[in-house]
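Student: Please help interpret what follows.
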Amino acid sequence: MISHLARAISPSPTFALNEKARILREKGEPVINMGIGEPKNKAPITAILSSAAKLTSGDIKYTPPDGTPGLKKAIIRYTEENYDKLVSPENVLVTAGAKQSIFNILFSVVNPQDEVIILAPYWVSYTEMIKMVNGVPVVITPEDGTFHPRMSDIEQAVTSYTKAIIVNSPNNPSGIIFSETFIAEIVEFCERKRIYLVMDDIYHKLVFNGHQVTSAYKYSNQDLESSMIIVVNGVSKLYGMTGFRIGWVIASRKLIDVMLNVQAQTTSCTSVVLQSAAEGALLGMQSIVENLRLSIENNRNIIMQELKSFHGLKVIEPQGTFYCLPDFRNYCPSAIAQNTVELAKFILEKTLVVTVPGKEFGMEGHLRLSYAGSTKEIIEGIERIKWAIDPSSPNEIYIGDRKLVRDWL
């Protein structure tokens, strides 16, 4: 028998689509994956050398559950340089990716039936992780056609059961950056109401056009031990090191102690080899971050230019991350645009392009398109999508070495 809780958790749509793309690719199909949030760059050489040195030593043992002293020291330095916040080793917990950081937080602060506010569009795993700890996700969706939350909506949604609010800026999947005014207001609100403010900062350096991401600490008048701010970050997006699975949490000592106990009883610790790689990345030359950012910004410009050819398609230009979230509801001639699960399946079936349905992010009618891939993939992927759904596009297309003729519009 399977537990009711396990049965209630939805499968990850991004992993499911990525697996489907992998299977098709192994069959020799010319698949373009615009669903995955994974840069194409190689890991920093400093990360490779650092992990290789640890591996070559053969001394691969347990580490302290909260992380190696060397990596924690590198995270403390990173926090001081990028957040203007001095923290102690007792304020840091190293985890197996930022995803585990968020789960540890929720497991540590949420009681059954406690509410956690998430802001649509939201990352797909937030709702499921809240359910996994018997919490209740409360979704707030902007009603003004933007992807930016309003404090008035949040204030109305807060109840005596509200335990935390999760803020992800730059935002996955929309790519927008929340305003400095909003960050200031939500910090003041959470500190006053004693509600945990979880800042998912995993994309905080992947920003464009000179934008800056505001640190929540800037607007807190509390010291770290009294503050309700919890910061999550990691190396996955910043350095394109998704497979290394290293993230971290910055929080009060009291909360870190609780999460440390949770982690010690579940995963014990994170691999010492992977922690060495993360330390190498954080302490090495940081030009790789800027090079990645510039490459992603160029890709953003390309995908926005390609999407302009869809007359009537609504898309808000991303200010960061490597995702955009076009609205297809007024574009597609068919009712299929009202069900983006079916629209994504249709596009995959007809064009071999992977996208992610907006429904998974709390935004039905939209598709999330990743532009983390190559320029060639972006241009060809958008061309294929347009061929499948736009009657004004050419009736024929080559996908791989096959000539296809559209017969459904």
User: Anything to note?
Assistant: Residues 141 and 169 are 15 Å apart (CA to CA). The chain has a mean pLDDT of 94. The radius of gyration is 22 Å.
